[in-house]
Amino acid sequence: MAHFSIDPDFVRFGQRAFAIRQINSIDVRRHYPHGRGLFYILTVVVVLCALGGLGSGNRVAIGLAIALGLLAVLGWRRSRTVEYRLFLTTSSSEVQAVCSRDPSQIDEFRRQIEASIRNFHASGISER
Q1: The whole model's pTM is what?
Q2: pLDDT per residue over 73-92, tens digit each?
Q3: For the chain, what is the largest distance between any 2 Cα atoms, rounded to a whole number of angstroms?
């Protein structure tokens, strides 16, 4: 995780700095970095191997179904991984500022940035 700091003028994530006065909006998005396609394909193959093996008594097909079933379970567990991405929208672009698997950390970043923006606007200063 990149170093995070915030002051009245800037929010910093590692080497990247964003001017508080230039931030128009903050967005948190969920992202699933590992798709579920392989899980679905393996599940179909497992079912076919199991049905074929049980119907004919083929031990190789049953063993293959068990092995592929274990891989399908691992793939399913991996596909449940969620990354939370915090985006900052400025007047010129939208930028992914930080990514984490810890939703409470992203929520804390968002809360601090929003508080800093509110303080900036409450100070009545439109340009610094």
Answers
A1: 0.68
A2: 888 888 888 999 999 998 88
A3: 80
